[in-house]
Amino acid sequence: MRSAISRSVDPAFAQHLNTVSTMKQHQHEATRLLTRADLRKRTRPAEFIAETSITGIAFVSLAAIVMIFIFAFREAAPIFSQPDVAAGQVQAPIEEQETYGEEMVASAPESAAPGKESARTDRDAEEGATLENLLGSVWQPVSSVPKFGLLPLVVGSFKVTLLAILLAAPIGILAALFTASFAPRWSREVLKPTIEILAGFPSVVIGFFGLVTLATLLQSVFGYTYRLNAFVGGVAMSLAVIPIIYTVTEDALNAVPKYLTEASLALGATKWETALFVTLPAATPGVFAAVVLGFGRAFGETMIVLMVTGNAALLSPGIFEPVRTMSATIGSEMAEVVFGDTHYTVLFLIGAILFLFTFSLNAVAEIFVRKRLLRRFGGG
Amino acid sequence: MVTKKRRLIGAGVIGISAIAALAIVGIVAAVTGTIVAGGWSTLSWEFLTAAPSEGMTAGGIFPAIVGTVFLVVMMSIAGVPIGTVTAIYLCEYAGTRSVLARGIRFAVNTLAGVPAIVFGLFGLGFFIQFVGGGIDRALTGGAELRWAQPNILWASLTMALLTLPVVIISVEEAIKTVPQDLRAASLALGATKWQTIRRVVIPNSLTGIMTGGILAVSRGAGEVAPILFTGAAYFLPHLPTALSDQFMELGYHIYIMSTQSTDVDATRGIQYATTLVLLLLTFLLNFSAIYLRSRIRARQQRS
């Protein structure tokens, strides 16, 4: 039949028909002879490229954290390797003194006076003793004899952070207990979005609120001398910490197995007894993690403290005195510093310390949430 | 039996915790109320579209709005794709026991906890000094300072790193809600793994990717610490036109105006109104993210 057609029509068309029929034949053959070899995994270049590049890009965040670690310490390293850097570049940033305003002058009464003589002896004393300089109790990075004592900054950071936690922890934990154990449904519907709004407030907005409203309000209530101080900083900071403590605590409370609370209620305990003596103790690791996370957040927060703590790097005992935290020091001084200078290096050192500190706090919190909760409830 | 004493203590406990919950609502109302009340009268169309004038004591905040938009757009361009791909890797490619995947998860968690100011330091040390300095040395032999100084590119990249965990977590959540059946069906029809991801998984997680992007933008628009010394400027007479330009930004503008302005009291209105604009922007972004997320969660419950 095929030959009959090819005889009657033109050769090109016959050729075409030929190929079609052979193709059909081949296809038929293929379905018939599908063997093990055909099912073998084929190398697909597109798949390989996709997987490799996705893995490669996923690597970015890992690389970023390693780089942050490396660069924070790289820029801070000269402090430890070259003890004479501090003495060598002492005079460099002197002309920038005016940028720091009055608190620098107020905190450095002796820096205005010293003659060349005393400056020289001080500098000689500093040579090879940078670490000692760092552990000192005076922070005067911009003066004829720069002093990089970190103590006032560390104390300032802890003051503000502890105040913030002391205020935020009770409010956050109690509110979480309320939502998890007592709240009627409608109030939960109100509270959840409210917390999200609070968590969404940019820190600069909280700082502005603290600076303009809170500072005036608290001063009129407590009647202290300095309008901006560690106390206002702590109060403002607590607004930023409450959402974290609340959220993590609430998660922990909700993770407490129902059979515990039901058993307690079945034994005749009231709702509040169950909440206070069963649910809350069972969720202790989570609550602890919440406080630790809040502490880390408050310790690293910059804008709030930069705006409301008064920014004077003074070592003082009271909570109503102006302070300057570690993060605020970086924020306010880094923009005006000479690259590679000792001051620059010390600011990076502070950053590295902040990084390490918050890093370990987060690690502790993580361990508490994961391991302890798992061990407690994992089996049941 | 519930005695009178127990009932009394109970009322006290519930009362105190209710007061704590109420305090939170009160705080939010107080902050929002103060800022709305303070900024409402200054806020006008002209305020949004005019540049600051008379030594920043009058005029509007147009350059700051434009700068913020530039910043978050560039940040999203850099950060959202990387975050999405990382989430895809973690959900689709990484084995449960893979060391690399665990390392990346650990890095993402750590990145989320690093203080914002440390990101700023990183931007300064890495992007400006190391990368920017390297580019300058390669282009001009270090004679001209073009890239080794604060600019909008480095600020955006710094911000992209900061918001990376936000994107990753959001997208991951969305990818996990894509039903396993869909993947299985696609694979059973002969599609390869990459084809399945591209045609099935990604289209089904678009809402999550959008949520991640919105949350990142909201976070990025509000953070000031990372851009303090990586690109934000006190005042610029013109809008940024090149990647190597500095820029004005809303949050930074609030900080500068309320702490270092020439006349802090006279510019109170501007400060309040700027804060109000930033707050409205964040609200808008956060609420759209919450809405999108609730849609994802609804799907999760259905499946």
Task: Outline the structure in words.
The complex is a heterodimer of chains A (380) and B (303). Chain A has a domain at 151-377: MetI-like fold, CATH 1.10.3720.10. Helices cover 74% and strands 1% of the residues of chain A. Chain A contains 20 helices and two strands. Chain A has a two-stranded antiparallel ribbon with strand order 1-2. In chain A, strand 1 and strand 2 form a beta hairpin. The model of chain A is unreliable at 1-8 and 84-129 (pLDDT under 50). By secondary structure, chain B is mostly helical. Chain B is built from eleven helices and two strands. Chain B has a two-stranded antiparallel sheet with strand order 1-2. In chain B, strand 1 and strand 2 form a beta hairpin. Classes of the chains: A mainly alpha (380), B mainly alpha (303). Chains A and B meet through helix 4, helix 11, helix 12, helix 13 and helix 14 of A and helix 1, helix 3, helix 4, helix 5 and helix 6 of B.
